[in-house]
Design brief:
about 30% strand, 8-stranded antiparallel barrel, alpha+beta, 11 strands, 3-stranded antiparallel sheet, disordered N terminus, about 270 residues, 6 helices
Length: about 270
Amino acid sequence: MADIAQRDLSPTRRRVNHNLRSQHGSPWLPPQTGRVTAAAPTSRAVRKVLKRTHAVTYVSFPGSKRSTMVKSSRPNIRIPVLVLVATLLAACAEEDEAPARLFDENGTWSLQEFSPEGSGGGPTLNGTVRENAFMVRFSEDLGALAAAACSSSLTNPDFSPSSSQCRLGDASENPPEWDCQCYSYYWPGETSQTWLHYKPKSGSKPPDPHNDADNSSTTSLTEVAPNTYRFSPLPNPLFDSDGESSSFVFRHKADTLFDETGCWEHCFD
């Protein structure tokens, strides 16, 4: 019976039969390392396409007009590669992750008290003529802030928190004058910020203070009350800071207060 089956095989199928016999000791068993993926009549055109895209072996069984396609097992390297790439990306993300911040700086902060010589405390601003006269407004997304200092239009320009007469007189008749300064910044640590002064240019992004350490300055941050923090020092000469030991206490306020200054548009137009 085996001889009759052998004679019925075409030359192509006989070669397949011979290969299977030599590898597995049986003329009819497909390779054990393979995986049967289809059992259907396969035309020459279909076989041609499959041979071009897959490593396949076709086996015919006696008494059947069907061919069985057996796909050889191959190691799939795509999954390990994807795992490796994901691991590397996760490691990079951890390295680039920003440090924790003492507080959410976004929004407007108004100067409450200052100490030009850094004694730690300092006089409270005159509530009549200097209330909300010295402010900063942060944008985490921009990595930048605008600072506004006020002087009265009735006096010589004086933008010092020690002597400014910003709110002197009727604001409708003598509107305050504002001095605007622009800074980019980042958090090098949880309780510190690094600022870099720059002159705004239309259509330009704020400069990265990481790239200009020589002209950047770092301020230490301390919580003194809810939504109130001490900055020590501010960059010289902002708000009369000496850039070394001066300290300034700011409290979080509404952004509408800063709108009056026009400094946000000045820095980020």
